UniProtKB/TrEMBL annotation:
General function of this protein: Catalyzes the cyclization of GTP to (8S)-3',8-cyclo-7,8-dihydroguanosine 5'-triphosphate.
Annotated residues for binding of GTP: R45, R96, T127, K188, R307, T308, R309
Keywords, alphabetical: 4Fe-4S, GTP-binding, Iron, Iron-sulfur, Lyase, Metal-binding, Molybdenum cofactor biosynthesis, Nucleotide-binding, S-adenosyl-L-methionine
PROSITE patterns: MOAA_NIFB_PQQE (PS01305), RADICAL_SAM (PS51918)
Low complexity composition bias: residue spans: 20-30
Lineage, uppermost ranks: Bacteria, Bacillati, Actinomycetota, Actinomycetes, Micrococcales
Similarity comment: Belongs to the radical SAM superfamily. MoaA family.
Pathway info: Cofactor biosynthesis; molybdopterin biosynthesis
Name the record gives this protein: GTP 3',8-cyclase
Amino acid sequence: MSVQLGMPQPREEAGPALPSVPAARPADAPAGLADRYGRRATDMRLSLTDKCNLRCTYCMPAEGLEWLAKQAVMTAEEIVRIVRIGVEQLGVRELRLTGGEPLVRHDLVDIISALRSNHPDLPISMTTNAVGLAKKAAPLKAAGLTRINVSLDSLHEETFTKLTRRPFLDQVLAGVDAAWAAGLGPVKLNAVLMRGINDAESPALLGWALDRGYELRFIEQMPLDADHGWTRRNMITAAEIREILSAEYVLSADPRERDGAPAERFEVRRRVPGLDAGGAPSAHGPVLGTVGIIASVTEPFCSDCRRTRITAEGKIMSCLFSREEYDLLGLLRSGADDDALARRWQDAMWIKPKAHGMDHVGLDAPDFVQPDRSMSAIGG
Ligand code: SAM
Ligand code: SF4
């Protein structure tokens, strides 16, 4: 069995997408987690673990990704302290717990209880694969979790197993229902479309979500897979997703403000066969719900990015595609006070790159260097 500690060399390698000389944060920089381009991060993504019980092909290798040592991962107390600094000193207004798979952390309920008791009004959501969620949804709600995002790429046992390399579809579906029943709504579902595997299923997946009142979001596959199987040519773009869905549905822009959200939202109506495609969407009947498309590769939203990320081992990442990380946990464990931790975090965010570089020169140009971490090791 080959063991991968980092990642293999990127397949599509070329020029730098990141600034080469980090600029020091000036004394008169704006408060909070501001950067050089006028953005301010208020949305914190915190990874609770790098471990996972699935092996999604677009994220992890089938085997051989070595877990972090237990002592390298943030403890519950460290997590609670870092979030407190983010909220009280740095303007964090929203927290998303992620991983790896957050549900594999045995102290998850305790972490959420502690966060909730410190921050009664903070929206705390969690992205999960929902394996084992059926039993935990009610305790998580009681502990103070606000909402849940579940990854669900297929409703077909065989396709699900092919994509995740594990036969757990029933558990995931039970988990989604339990989350809804426990009051962890609105339930959002995340689906990554893979060509020739689940792309053709996307209208059916949308229909299923609309029937149940779940908000489905399609995520463009990003080059963050441990296997380095991503290619520009093979990924399903947002334009294609809209095209595939339009066979059965009419999508029109959601009038609500996007407000920094990664997903572009559309209102969804069922297409009336034979009706003029260029006509008014309302001619196709009532709005059944919404669908989101997260087009990180082909229609990036970097200029309005409000995210700051902390990995499971307490590294600050200003962007999913950063190839530079700043150690917050090491500083915390060295005895630093809250102000010093806040300054380190601010410094790391100040040099957030302007954009991730995947979109610079068209889909066929080899301009982008894949980061060293896979999605599971960052916290998506
Ligand atoms: N294990 C949890 C889950 O799957 O929901 C949380 C962590 S997972 C890394 C967070 C999100 O990242 C999931 O919705 C997953 O579909 C998405 N993701 C993982 N790898 C991706 C990739 N290469 N491109 C796009 N999205 C990806
Ligand atoms: Fe695990 Fe989530 Fe990555 Fe799938 S996407 S392998 S569930 S971390």
